[in-house]
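Appendix B. One record, verbatim.
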Amino acid sequence: MKEQRASAFSSCLIALVLLACESTPTPPPPELCSLTASQAALTAADRKIIGEASGYPADGLLRVREAELAASQKLRRELGWNTVQKVIAPVPLSEPLPNVDDAAIPRFQTWYDLGDLRRVFHQLYSVLPLEQKQARTRFSTESLDGAFLWNLTAVDSLPNWPVERYQQYLEDVSDESEVNGLAGISRVAYSPGAARHLLRSYPEILKCRSSGPPPEHELGPVQQVELARVPFNAAACETAMIGTYAIKADESLQVTLEEGDQAELILRSKTEECRTAPGSACTIAGPATIEVLVEAEQAVESVVTVNRESAHPPWSACLDGAFPNDAVVVKADYRRADFELTMPSFGTSAEALEKRLTGDVSWDLADGQVNPTADSIYSLTLPNGAHYRLAALHVMTKELDHWLWVTLFWSESPNADFGADRPASLTGPWANYKMCAVTAFEEQDLDPSGGFSQTHPSLGEALAAVYAGPGTPSWCSNPYVEQGHGNADSNCVGCHQHGGTKLRSEDVLALPSGGNTLLRNNFPTDYSWAVTQGDTLAQVFSDEETYYLGSSAR
C-alpha cells in the first residue's frame, strides 16, 4: 500500500514538470526570523482532493479593541487561543476517500502554498496579451476567481495522471495520518485572502524588486482630514472643552475657531500649548494627545473646526495596499519522526526563562530530547511513507493593522505556564501545545503576571519572567521557530515590520532593543517576508515575466 502511494507520488512530481513553467523547486532557505526543519509541497493532485482553501473567519471588529488588547495579557491570550481554534478547525476534504470516512484536515492545511501560487500565477500571467504583460496590468477579480478555480483541477491536465491512477491514489489513503499528509509539509501557507492579495500585487512587487523598498522613514504628500466641526456656546469667563484628540507620528492637529470676540482658542498637550485668536489656525505635531478648549472673556457662540494633517507614506508601497482583514499567514515547523529520530524540548517555566534570557538569549541549546507519539503531537504521513510531526505553528492574522501574532509550540509539560490556560475544547494532540500572543510592539499591561497570579500561578510567574515593565517591548518567542542570538527575547512583530527589505535576521537582531521596537513609518510588504525571503515571490514573478518578455522585461 505504502509502495503504491510512493509510486503515485513520484509520478505526480514527474508530471508536474510537464506543466508549462512548472517545476519541482529546490526547497527555499528558511524564512527570515524563523527556522523550519522540513518542507514538501502540496501537489496538484492533493489540491484536487483537498479542494478550495477554507477562508479564515476574521473578526471585523477587532481593530476597535487594539488599545484594550495592548493593555491586557489576559485578553490577548483569550484571543490567541480562540484564533488557534479557528486555524485548526477541521475542514472536510473535497473528494471522498474510499477507505476513510468523513476525512477532514485542519483549516490551515487547506491553505495555499508556494506550489499553488506558482501554478495560479502562471495561469493568470500566461494569458495576458503582450501589451498587458509589458504594462504589468493588474489581474481582475474575475480572472483571479477563474485561476483559483482552475487550480482545483489542474492535475486533470497532467498526462501522467489518468483517472485510474488518481483513483488508486485515493484508495491508498487508509488512516488519519495519511489524510493529514495530503496537505504536505509546506513551511508557509497563505489563507485565500492573503494568497489573492499577493498575486494581485505582482505589479508593485516587481517594481520594488527593481527599484528597492522605501526607506524606514518617508514622508508622503500632506493630506488633511476633517475630524470634527463642533458648534458650542460659552458664557462669559467660561472655558469650554471642545474635545480631546490623539494623533500619531507624522501627523499634526490643526484647529480653527471660526469667530468670537474676546475668545481664545487653546490646544494643549503634555509638552506643548498653542493659543490663537479666532480665524487663525493653531497646530501641534504628533505623536500627542491634545485637548482643544476655548477660553471666553465674553459670551460667545461659534464653531471650532478640527483637522488632522498627515504626511504618511503608503503603508505598504510594495503591495497593492495593506492585506485584507481575512489574510492569514502560517509558518509550520515539521520534524521527521522516522528512524527513531527525536526532537528537542524546551522548558518555559519562570525559572527556565530567567536562565534562557541571560547569556546569548537564544533557543539554540535545547533542554532535552524527546520522542513524542502520534497521540500527543499532531502527526502526518506523506505519500512517500515518511512520517512527520508538527513542533510549532506560527500564525499571523491581519485582524489588526499591525497584525495579531499567535504562536504554538509543543511541550512535554503542556499544562504548565504557557499551556495552563488552554481551553478544554482543545483536545487530542492539540492539548499538548503551549501558546503566546502579542498585538503591539510595546507591553501596556501594568500587571507583570498578566492577571494570572491567582488563577494560573505558573503562567503568571512565566509572564513575569519575560516582563520588563509597561512601555517596554512585548514578548512572544517560539523555541522551535525563533533562532539566533537574542531571539529568545523577541516579539514577532518587531522583525516582521522590515518585511520586503534586504535586512537579514542578524541585521534585525542587531537593531536597538533587538529589533523589537517600532522603527519604521511604512511597511513595504505589510509585515510579510514572503516577497523577498523564504518563498521569494518577487523572484517567482520575475522569472515568469522574463520567460515571456526576455530582455524587454523591466
